[in-house]
Task: inverse folding
């Protein structure tokens, strides 16, 4: 690890997952293109080229429906862990720290240090916004992804209707359709299950060296302790 360039070493977590994301997206595009063309051929329609497929609503809705659920998960987790606790979990704050905590503990306002972000030392709206900036951005990305899913999903649904010689539906009608909510809720339930499982399993199970786990020898009741 020490032989790696400093930038790579100091950003290896983001780089590794970013590269993994791109490879997975490319794999999804290749597999999705093959599946899409198989369906077109089964309906005696002309298949799409790979690059044409990337511009279809079919590809876009599959991507955005996963993005919105992931960012919903992190938005709820970031805000929920301010107040909600799980005794014994490193994913939770300790029992007596529920809530926004004091300015001194959060190093804001007059308690900010020399290396604190500038807006942490500011007063009023700037400090209030910066104090919630992570959750706000996660929420905005979730909402924009969900909006994109609804638009592209509506287009994809109407394309299927037209191929089946059925009348298209409006965007508003699609928002209340089974297709939209099936796509949405099948992702939400899996994300919420994953967070709940991580919170409770980390009480009793360990992963040596991971900040998502308690130290191996920590008691099951130890809360907010990272390995």
Result:
């Amino acid at each position: 690890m020490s032989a790696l360039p400093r930038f790579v070493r100091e950003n290896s977590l983001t780089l590794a997952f970013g590269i993994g994301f791109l490879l997975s997206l490319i794999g999804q595009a290749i597999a999705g293109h093959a599946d899409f063309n198989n369906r077109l051929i089964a309906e005696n329609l002309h298949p799409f080229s790979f690059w044409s497929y990337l511009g279809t609503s079919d590809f876009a809705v599959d991507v955005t429906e996963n993005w919105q659920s992931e960012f919903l998960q992190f938005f709820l987790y970031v805000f929920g862990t301010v107040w909600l606790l799980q005794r014994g979990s490193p994913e939770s704050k300790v029992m007596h720290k529920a809530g926004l905590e004091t300015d001194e503990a959060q190093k804001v306002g007059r308690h900010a240090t020399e290396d604190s972000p500038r807006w942490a030392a500011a007063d009023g709206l700037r400090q209030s916004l910066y104090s919630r900036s992570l959750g706000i951005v996660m929420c905005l990305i979730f909402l924009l992804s969900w909006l994109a899913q609804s638009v592209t999903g509506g287009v994809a649904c109407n394309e299927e209707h037209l191929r089946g010689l059925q009348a298209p539906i409006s965007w508003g009608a699609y928002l209340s359709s089974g297709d939209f909510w099936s796509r949405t809720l099948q992702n939400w339930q899996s994300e919420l299950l994953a967070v709940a499982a991580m919170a409770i399993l980390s009480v009793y199970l360990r992963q040596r060296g991971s900040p998502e786990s308690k130290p191996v020898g920590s008691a099951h009741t130890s809360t907010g302790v990272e390995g």
Q: What stands out?
A: The first helix runs from residue 6 to 10. The radius of gyration is 23 Å. Residues 23 and 177 are 32 Å apart (CA to CA).
